[in-house]
Design a protein that fits this description.
- By secondary structure, the protein is an alpha/beta fold.
- It has two domains: about 220 residues, Aspartate Aminotransferase, domain 2 (3-Layer(aba) Sandwich); about 100 residues, Aspartate Aminotransferase, domain 1, CATH 3.90.1150.
- Helices cover about 45% and strands about 15% of the residues.
- The chain contains 16 helices and 13 strands.
- A seven-stranded mixed sheet has the order 2-8-7-6-5-3-4, sandwiched between helices.
- Strand 12 and strand 13 form a beta hairpin.
- Helix 1 crosses helix 4 and helix 3 runs antiparallel to helix 4.
- Bound molecules: pyridoxal-5'-phosphate (PLP).
């Protein structure tokens, strides 16, 4: 920034002070928020029991749906509580004292986890918000095509439908395999590569399908796309955009390792970050093709608006406005938690448990495992079908035995388990015994 740069803090401080005064009178009578209970024992990253003790999850229940909406570990809860108290006690003062540093630390931690620079990350409230903003904001001309698949989640399909309705881009959905249990990485990559046309500008896929638990070979897809893009001008290349939410915090690959152009995720599923947080990571060349819809509150935005500095903010500058900062800033501690455990050990643990579960389920009469058995084509999601009852009935029957599962919100719908760092071998075995009984 040049000499005439405006202080973001100064600007926002004035606005916040007014809002805080109004809020004070309305909240005078509110009781002081209780800080969450301290966790029993410090974290020993090498001990999975110690890891599980960091969570307030009810251990009387086997938590195979914890990935749906995270319960954060002690370090994250403590950070949320600290920021919340600070903001509650002196909103503007705390905001001024913390904001710049907290944001920088957050971007740094995100950069370490995702690979590359933390400047290439844009924070959101959820995967869905990230997908909506991304697919609404990629520069596309009428006639340009987005290639997606039949296996993606509602949030991808709807974001693309809204985009197509708005400005006439074509969205084409392909089916990559008939049966996930027998699908192969080669077949998936070849089918997708054959579906590319000269008009394809975006390939919209999902890292781990929440419909079946199949993990897509993203790196191999990125390599196939690189071949397709080789002789194309930068603005005509097909960008690989990935809804990564069920791999992020569960699979041992950074965004850079995956080779995609954009990775969109919530931080409130497998990362076990604060609820209501998410991100979009993009390569710098990919962000250059993005047009933001929400003004950023970062310094460059205000400086440009006030005429102090003609440089526009980077497209990767996070959406502005006042946020639930106690949650946003505490995403840093979620990255720290995973750094302490290490991504490879988290992934290994997730896979060991899901393999044990899949193998057990496959041996039960009347159960069909839908998720690929191979660790390369799966992660922590395990989907299956019971001959004896519907997925919803199975979820209820298992809940009655303190086994918490979910159904997949797709047609067809399946019974779904998520093995993660908050589940263990004994719970997998309990789940298998319970499925045996109900089926
Ligand atoms: C593949 C996939 N993407 C996105 C979402 C939505 O995530 P969020 O709640 O972070 O928007 C889900 C399920 O909740 C999902 O299964």
């Amino acid at each position: 920034m040049g000499e005439l740069s405006v202080s973001r803090r100064g600007l926002l401080g004035g606005l916040t002070a007014t809002a805080a005064l109004g809020a004070l009178s309305a909240c005078d009578a509110d009781p002081v928020m209780e800080v969450p209970k301290p966790t029993p024992g410090p974290l020993d990253p090498g001990d999975w029991d110690s890891v599980r003790r960091q969570f307030l999850l009810d251990t009387a229940k086997a938590q195979f749906a914890a990935f749906v909406f995270a319960s954060p570990p002690a370090g994250v809860r403590a950070a949320i509580a600290r920021h919340r108290e600070g903001l509650d006690q002196d909103t503007v003062g705390y905001l001024h004292a913390q904001e710049e540093n907290a944001r920088q630390r957050l971007h740094l931690a995100a950069g370490k986890y995702l690979g590359g620079s933390g400047d290439h990350v844009y924070f959101t409230d959820s995967t869905t918000m990230g997908l909506g903003l991304l697919y609404g904001g990629i520069a596309l001309r009428p006639g340009d095509e987005v290639l997606t698949t039949e296996h993606d989640f509602y949030s991808t399909h709807e974001s693309l439908r809204l985009r197509a309705a708005r400005d006439g881009v074509t969205v084409r959905k392909v089916r990559l395999f008939a049966d996930p249990a027998t699908a192969s990485a080669d077949q998936i990559v070849q089918t997708l590569a054959k579906s590319l046309t000269p008009a394809t500008r975006v390939v919209a896929v999902t890292w781990v399908h929440s419909s079946t638990g199949l993990r897509m070979p993203i790196r191999a897809i990125a390599d196939a796309l690189a071949t397709h893009n080789r002789d194309l001008a930068p603005d005509r290349r097909a960008l690989l955009c990935v809804d990564g939410v069920h791999g992020f915090g569960a699979v041992d690959a950074s965004a850079v390792d995956l080779g995609c152009d954009f990775l969109v995720s919530g931080c409130h599923k497998w990362l076990f970050g604060p609820r209501g947080t998410g991100l979009v990571w993009g390569r710098p060349e990919a962000w250059a093709r993005f047009r933001p819809a929400i003004p950023t509150f970062e310094q460059a935005g205000f400086a440009n608006w006030l005429g102090f500095d003609p440089a526009l903010p980077a497209p990767s500058a996070s959406p502005g406005g006042y946020h639930n900062f106690e949650h946003l800033w505490a995403v840093e501690q979620a990255f720290d938690f995973h750094a302490a455990l290490t991504r490879s050990r988290v992934a290994q643990r997730t896979t060991e448990l899901s393999t044990r579960l899949k193998e057990g389920l496959a041996g039960i009469d009347g159960v069909t495992v839908i998720t690929p058995r191979s660790a390369e084509l799966s992660a922590g999601l395990v989907c299956c079908e019971l001959k004896s009852m519907s997925p919803a009935a199975a979820v209820s029957a298992l809940a009655a035995k303190d086994i918490i599962t979910s159904t997949t919100p797709y047609n067809p719908s399946y019974l779904r388990f998520g093995t993660s760092i908050v589940t263990n071998e004994a719970e997998v075995d309990r789940a298998l015994a319970a499925v045996r009984e109900i089926s």
